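Data availability excerpt. The first of two example chains:
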Amino acid sequence: MSASSLAAEIRGGAWAGGLPRSALGATACAEIPGIAGVVITYVQPLRDWFDQLLGDSAQVAGVAAQWEDAAASLTELAPRLRGGRTALTDLDGRTVRALRERHDDLLAVTRDAAEWAAATAASLRLASRIVDATRTYVCEVLTRLARFAEQLFSFSLNPLEIAHRVTDFARAAADLVAATGRLVTELLEALHALSALIQRLIPIIAEAAAALKDVVARMLPAVGLAAGGLVGMLLGGAAQNFLQKSADVEELDPDTLDPTRRQAWEDAQRVTRLDTFADLVAVNGTTDLMGGADATVIDVKRVVGADGSEHWVVSLPSTQDWQFSGDKGAMNDRDSNIALMLDNPLLRSAYERAALEAMRDAGIRPGDQVVLTGFSQGGILAANLAADPTFPYRTIGVVTNGSPVDGFAVPADIPVYSFQHESDLVPRLDGNGTGPVPPNVHRITLPDTGNPLAAHDNQYYRDSIAAWEQLYAAQHGAPPPGLDALTGAVVDHSMFTAAE
């Protein structure tokens, strides 16, 4: 059944059958004689029905009013959207054309939503009237029985007359209880039918809400560009990233990869041990190459340390799609870069959601120990997750290279190893490159060629870190501290992929 036909069925009221829809004796409940208390006491079904129906109509009417308000708001929104669409008629350009399309999509969703809200409000108003009418009918039953009871208990010296009164009262009570029972049963069945119809509407509303969210998300970059130029477009893109729907995350099938990405997959599979910081950084390079600009790949390894303890190492990819010629598919793109730096506590970027799903799919259980590592944007996400109090795993270390991560409040019990080339400008984009360093953050500055472009390269970082580790071991007679908790033998390895 289509959404429109379902809305028409809800509004039509066929679900109510032949139930009374108006309470003609609206004052019946206020006119019950005092003897009704005695009647209610001895005719228990009436007591139960009276208690169940008392006040329900007002509650249903209150919900109906909320739906009516929603329908009115949506109806008022439609002319504004048409006005915005009309204002774009005389303009041209790819951005304007995209905005016109989004306005059309938004107007269609708004019209449908207004129709469903109005139909639901009308049905609930009808339900309120039916409940009220049925309740009034029960009150009328009580009134009639109370009058029978008054006659029954009135003074009489004729025992036959009293016997007739008792018989009449019993028959009337039985007939009225039976009739009321049927009416209440029909009422409950009707309300159940209405509930079933509304339940069928809920997934349609949810689908429309998701579509609405997607339409708004797709509008944000263009609106940002029109309102704030390049900065507005970038911020609009970041907001779009928060709102866009989650991508499907699947285990990476190497048979779907082109030769370059297949080679990166094979290189990643050959990693059986992680013994140094250079090893932890090297895997970021293969993670980037396996996904490229078309897809996001997340590399997850289960590692057993020298002491037999188990932890997971999650490698997160860097920015691969800069969106200069449209969105290519990788969620680790320019927009998510900005979204992650904004570190919104209420919303997760699409890239962040994909990474969390990959970790779940890999078999990481809540509370498991996790090492997060990433180059550039991958390191930003690593620090973002470590600083998130809702992150379901126990982060035991963060290793980043070429990443601006000083702005994230990573808890003091989590060691952060932030490797930065002297001339690499990217790690300083957060403006905190010269600020105080928390005790748990180990910022290691590495010498390089002095070329800012060459300095921001994962393989170059891997080589620089390996040289730094060798120099450290020569000077101190031991490797850098903290490695034992982060390294070990790889006992399980899986990669996951997703695309926008």
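And the second chain:
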Amino acid sequence: MSNVAIVSGEIPPPRHDTFLAAVRKGYFATPGAAAVTSVCLALIALAVWTVFRWAVLDAVWSSGGPNVCQQATGACWAVIAARWRLIFFGLYPYDEQWRSALACAAILATVAVSCFPFSWSATRLPLVWIAGYGVFYGLMRGGFLGLPTVLETQWGGLSLTLFVFSTVVVTGMPLAVCLALLRRSRLPVIARTVAVLIDGIRSLPLVAILFTAAIIIPYALPHFLVGDKLYRVIAGFSLFFAVYQAEIIRGGMQALPAGQEEAAHALGLNYWQTMSRIVLPQAFRHALPPTINQVVITFMETSLIVIIGFFEVMASGNAAFSTAEWSATYVEVYVFVAAIYFAFTFTLSRYGAYLERRLNVARH
């Protein structure tokens, strides 16, 4: 019948295999492939059932204390019910932890609002982040409207992780734009100096930069310039983020046709008008996928600050089972902390995929 269609000049419609046909063709085409697929499916089903039974069916959910888990054969989620405040708020004063919770809600709401297209402008987006970040910092530190002052040394848990992450992104993104523009400068001295700076910092591990900011900088600067250790670490982290993001932005700029800048100059636009209205918006559009990836990596790398003495969510998780009565529940705590990281990183990655589809980055 297809031969008749070809002879008559008609093109037969394309065949669309059903899902079952595609699975049969890909995984059960031969007896050997069917056997391997069956064994793999059985192992996956066994693993899923084992984890489900340990985490749900045989788990202990009561918060009656560590004694309720002594005879349990599954997970002891009672440690989360008993120690969740420590994981989320760290060393923050118990009576003031509602402020830390509101601060986290404020920064998460800021991230959510900035994801909507109506806030994507050069004036609205900075205002949204300045307002959200100001509310976050004001609630965390206090010292106004009758709120007691809570120093940064008492911050911890998830709220400290969000503070470090949001500060690094907010300060590192403008710095990345500046570095990308300076590296494209027509003055060789500036371009080469910035290139050496970027390549030099990119060649160092983040741990070395954090240790330098926390331990070595106080010996190299006068006492009045040292500042708090938390902000030194954030500054080093922001610089590390900025050099990687600068290369991502510069790659987005190089993807643009050179004629666009020439056309802008022909229309009478100056350098800053050309960059802000033509080059940078398109550069960010081209650099969107790696930018989202860099933001996700930055959130995961916030766990490294635990090695220099900060009580972030990973350190808070370690403290949750460090007592003798909860020492056997480290697996449950690590699973809970991993679920927190997964929730944030998966949401960011899915939002990045949504933006790719919306802006058609892959087609242009």
